[in-house]
Design goal:
- There is one protein chain.
- With about 350 residues, this protein is of the alpha/beta class.
- The chain has two domains: about 10-180, NAD(P)-binding Rossmann-like Domain (Rossmann fold, 3-Layer(aba) Sandwich); about 185-335, N-(1-d-carboxylethyl)-l-norvaline Dehydrogenase, domain 2, CATH 1.10.1040.10.
- About 50% of the residues lie in helices and about 10% in strands.
- It has helices at about 15-25, 40-50, 70-75, 85-95, 120-130, 145, 160-170, 185-205, 210-230, 240-250, 260-265, 270-280, 285-300, 305-315, 320-330; strands at about 10, 30-35, 65, 80, 105-110, 135-140, 150-155, 175-180.
- Strand 4 (about 80), helix 4 and strand 5 form a beta-alpha-beta unit.
- It is globular.
- The chain binds nicotinamide-adenine-dinucleotide and SN-glycerol-3-phosphate (G3P).
- Nicotinamide-adenine-dinucleotide binds next to helix 1 and helix 4.
């Protein structure tokens, strides 16, 4: 691999993950611009070297510069990472492309699916910037742990081998290891789907589940999400990697996951609205659940866990009734591996 020289990196979105990834690139001595909407947050970074709203207590390196001006943030960038919630993704990229240098690489950090179109973020990037190389980062990456320099690993997925290798070099450091994978669809789908199962696990923990139960939920979640994604064209092997089982494990185990916490608060008796308000940050799984539930019906893919959570959240079904339905369904359906692709 040829050594990457100092490259101008821009991250769009000053939330927890955008800030954490921007800081890693800056730690690797690249000049980094973090574009955000909030003047207050930008001032906070300039004056206190901290994003107190999203990553309180973590020092941001000096070569990370906040910016409120999209044009100047993007104009000379070699790499543009997009870290805004999926519902804002298309609008932000639409505005960005007019300023994009011809050779800039575009990489999504977002784990979600576009409502109505069912497009993944890389597909939106392709739509809006068809001449640019596109990639996606996904893996077990809790932003606060990355900011705390805890050892973490992730996946850069792209059809472009050059882009994969460049991003590996751009972000790899002693506490962060980046692996390449050409299966962009599988990596991205895994990152979106695991949020649904984190909500289920959080809910089950709040209701006092035992460790056997957690293991059963995580394992059946992996089978269910792989079955769905493989039906849509993903490589089943991706689900045995960091972006698949890796991310599923961390998101279904940690109170730092916002999706897990949504489930936990609902399990404690909050309404969905109250849970979302209490978290105050992006929890993509809520919308992903609606879209995947609909798509599973359309494709005829068997997804009992998605169906169960949908019934609890959107149809007000009692959790106990859903749990007993899951445990007493037709055993003929419950074959561990349904086909070569699970
Ligand atoms: N936080 C994590 O641990 C983590 C890890 C991996 C991936 N992700 C993914 O990254 C994406 C972003 O998550 P996050 O954790 O940074 O969310 P967040 O809630 O911490 O921050 C979202 C940021 O996006 C900004 N934003 C929202 N709408 C915008 C718009 N229209 N224009 C400009 N900025 C806008 C908000 O102001 C905020 O700064 C999500 O899809 C999430 O699943 C998060
Ligand atoms: O906080 P969550 O639930 O969005 O999860 C964060 C990351 O996706 C974990 O990899």
């Amino acid at each position: 691999m040829t050594q990457l020289t100092s490259s101008k990196v821009t991250v769009l979105g000053g939330g927890s993950f955008g800030t954490a990834v921007a800081n890693i690139a800056a730690l690797n001595h690249h000049p980094v611009t973090l574009w955000m909407r909030s003047e207050k947050q930008a001032d906070d970074i300039l004056q206190n070297r901290q994003n107190s709203r999203y990553l309180p207590g973590y020092r941001l390196v000096d070569n990370l510069t906040p910016s409120l001006d999209l044009e100047s943030a993007v104009r000379d960038a070699h790499y543009v990472f997009v870290a805004v919630p999926s519902k804002a993704f298309r609008a932000v990229v639409e505005e960005t492309v007019q300023y994009l240098p011809a050779n800039a690489r575009l990489i999504s950090l977002t784990k979600g699916i576009e409502p109505t179109s069912f497009k993944l973020m890389s597909q939106i990037l392709h739509d809006l910037a068809p001449k640019h190389d596109v990639g996606v980062i996904s893996g077990p990456n809790l932003a606060k742990e990355i900011a705390d320099n805890q050892i973490s690993a992730t996946v850069i997925a792209s059809y472009s081998q050059a882009l994969r290798q460049e991003v590996q070099q751009l972000l790899s450091c002693p506490s962060f290891r980046v692996y390449g994978n050409p299966d962009i669809y599988g990596v991205e789908m895994a990152g979106a789907l695991k949020n649904i199962y984190a909500i289920i696990t959080g809910l089950a923990v709040a209701l006092g589940m035992a460790e056997n139960t957690r293991a059963a939920i995580i394992t059946r979640s992996l089978a269910e999400m792989s079955r769905f994604a493989v039906r849509l064209g993903a490589n089943p092997m991706t689900f045995l990697g960091l972006a698949g089982v890796g991310d599923l494990i961390v998101t279904c185990s940690s109170q730092l996951s916002r999706n897990y916490r949504v489930g936990y608060y609902i399990g404690e008796g909050m309404t969905l609205k109250q849970a979302i308000k209490k978290i105050g940050e992006t929890a993509e799984g809520i919308n992903t659940l609606r879209m995947v539930n609909e798509k599973a019906d359309e494709l005829g893919v068997y997804m009992p866990l998605v169906k169960g959570l949908y019934a609890i959240i959107y149809q007000d079904m009692p959790v106990k009734e859903i749990a007993s339905r899951l445990m007493s369904g037709d055993l003929a359906e419950d074959v561990e591996f349904m086909s070569v692709g699970m």
